[in-house]
Design a protein that fits this description.
Elements (H helix, E strand, L loop, with lengths): L12 H8 L9 E7 L5 E9 L9 H11 L3 E7 L9 H17 L3 E7 L4 E3 L7
Parallel strand pairs: 3-4
Antiparallel strand pairs: 1-2, 1-3, 4-5
Length: 130
């Protein structure tokens, strides 16, 4: 997945989508995290889990371990829905709530959770779940 021409700073949900467009064609669900600096520069990107997303597999430990290691000031998570429909499931909302709470405790806020579908995406921040 080449990031040529992709902004190295995150300003809005479409910048997040650009980082994860490659997920749209994946046959399995990929749950990824983007680690940001204080100025929303990208410090790193990591695939946390491949397979069905649920709260036990995509827990705060997996997401925030890397954030702490590289000194991230904030985190954005994203995953794809292989069905192509990016509408959030109850599990997606639960994972978001869990990560939001953990981020608040650790002083590493979860800024957004973006779900990638086929030619569509949903930002849970825009939907006011964050």
């Amino acid at each position: 997945a080449s990031n040529k021409g992709v902004a190295q700073e995150i300003r809005k949900p479409k910048d997040v989508v650009a980082q994860f467009l490659y997920l749209a064609d994946e046959p399995q669900e990929h749950f990824c995290a983007l680690f940001l600096s204080t100025k929303n520069g990208i410090l790193g990107r990591r695939t946390i889990h491949i397979g069905t997303v649920n709260a036990s597999l995509v827990g705060p430990r997996e997401v925030f371990r890397e954030a702490v290691r590289i000194g991230a000031a904030a985190v954005i998570v994203a995953h794809n829905h292989p069905s192509g429909d990016p509408e959030p499931s109850p599990e997606d909302l639960e994972v978001t709530r869990t990560l939001k709470s953990a981020g608040e405790l650790m002083d590493i806020p979860l800024l957004d959770h973006v779900i990638i579908g086929h030619n569509r995406h949903v930002s849970l921040k825009e939907r006011r779940h964050l």
